[in-house]
Amino acid sequence: MSTSMSNSTAVPTVSSASTPIVLTIAGSDSGGGAGIQADIKAISATGGYACSVITAITAQNTLGVSAIFPIPLKHVEKQLDAVFTDLNIIAVKVGMLADAEIIKIVAAKIKQYQPAFLVIDPVMVATSGDLLLQASAINTLKSELLPLADIITPNLPEGAALIGSEVPNNEGSMEAMISGLRQLGAKTVLLKGGHLEKDENSNDLLIFPDNVHHLTAKRINTRNTHGTGCTLSSAIASYLAQGYDLLQAVQLAKQYISQAIAHADELDIGQGHGPVNHFFNGHADVS
């Protein structure tokens, strides 16, 4: 099934008087374009309330990452307990987890507090192609955390790393990954096709247990795409927290990130790959 992003008219299937609180568990980006900073911007821009647990502090700008300082495990745990015991967290987005021990703590706390929705952006592969997680940590991610997820959002290198395949170079080889990705245990998988840069459109596969939705949006020619994965996954979590069903949440998030990329060149940030424009419209209405 193919779905265009230009005509989404989704409305929430669940209404709630409570504030849609979304927790992001990820690393901090000092340049403000990705990580915790992008997550908070995306959640806020799409109508949610963002809280955070920081797993690592990066020294980072639009030109790259120069240092990473993992937060001590005990403090990650204390942050998780602090927010979960006080705030009515409806959805959780998980991004950068530095090592296997942090993955185990996050998985244990998700099981303990049982938020309604869990969105995992498996940040595993740098833009350079280098793996950001050791093999043991990838195995822990696959065994402990991914099976808890309502949706995981790998890009093509991350999806390939998760199932041990070659990185796809066309839509046919993307579709060949479907069976392997289903076996990871998450309820759904959004396989993002943004790395197929020769394609006119940016095509993603939303993989359910018994069907696949093809989501397409016009590819936008800009170098300012820093933080797109963080932004998309956070927007999905935000829309889930507001009562949209999973397909609607993904459709709206895809529409939101497409607009944020389309307006990215209106910003003048740094000398390298700048961020998307999270507040392109000034408020949460992306219709």
Please render the helix and strand layout as text.
Elements: E1 2-4, E2 21-29, H1 35-45, E3 49-61, E4 64-70, H2 73-84, E5 89-94, H3 100-113, E6 117-120, H4 135-145, E7 151-152, H5 156-163, H6 171-175, H7 178-182, E8 188-191, E9 201-207, E10 212-218, H8 228-241, H9 246-262
Parallel strand pairs: 1-10, 2-3, 2-5, 5-6, 6-7, 7-8
Antiparallel strand pairs: 3-4, 8-9, 9-10
Helix pairs in contact: 1-8, 2-3, 3-4, 8-9
Describe the structure.
This protein is α/β, with parallel strands linked by helices and 287 residues long. The chain has a single domain (18-266), classed as UDP-N-acetylmuramoyl-L-alanine:D-glutamate ligase (3-Layer(aba) Sandwich). The chain contains 9 helices and 10 strands. Helix 3 links the parallel strand 5 and strand 6. Helix 1 (35-45) crosses helix 8 (228-241), helix 3 (100-113) runs parallel beside helix 4 (135-145) and helix 8 packs across helix 9 (246-262). It is globular. The model is unreliable at 2-9 (pLDDT under 50). Its EC number is 2.7.1.49. Keywords: ATP-binding, Kinase, Nucleotide-binding, Transferase. GO terms for molecular function: ATP binding; hydroxymethylpyrimidine kinase activity; phosphomethylpyrimidine kinase activity. It is an enzyme of class 2 (transferase).
